[in-house]
Amino acid sequence: MIRFNKARLVGVRLVVLSFVLAAFTGLSAQNDTTFVANGTPIIKYKYVGDPAAMVHDGKVYIYGGHDECPPPNEHYLINEWCVFSSPDLKTWTEHPVPLKAKDFSWAKGGSMGKSGH
């Protein structure tokens, strides 16, 4: 029998909803960046871990944490999440950052934990 932690499930749903809403409202002043993917990985200019894909109105959206390891850290930190979209899986657009770790009052040090990548 699988047991679910209801509070955690609600939290996950709120994070996903935040991603979706932020992607469509453009909460940042950052401009969209378009690029053509040649092979894998699709995103080669930054590390985007744990991607999740969604399809909406004929476009694929990829959401993922932007893992960074600034010196002197020994672990990757997720300070923001990224969103990319494509109508054809070849031409991709990076949209403004929809969500940052500092948006969560309970996040320590402005990042979302340590990642051992």
UniProtKB/TrEMBL annotation:
Coiled coil: none annotated. Keywords: Carbohydrate metabolism, Polysaccharide degradation, Signal, Xylan degradation. InterPro entries: Glyco_hydro_beta-prop_sf, Glycosyl_Hydrlase_43_Enz. Residues 1-29 form the signal peptide. One of its GO terms (biological process) is xylan catabolic process. This is Uncharacterized protein.
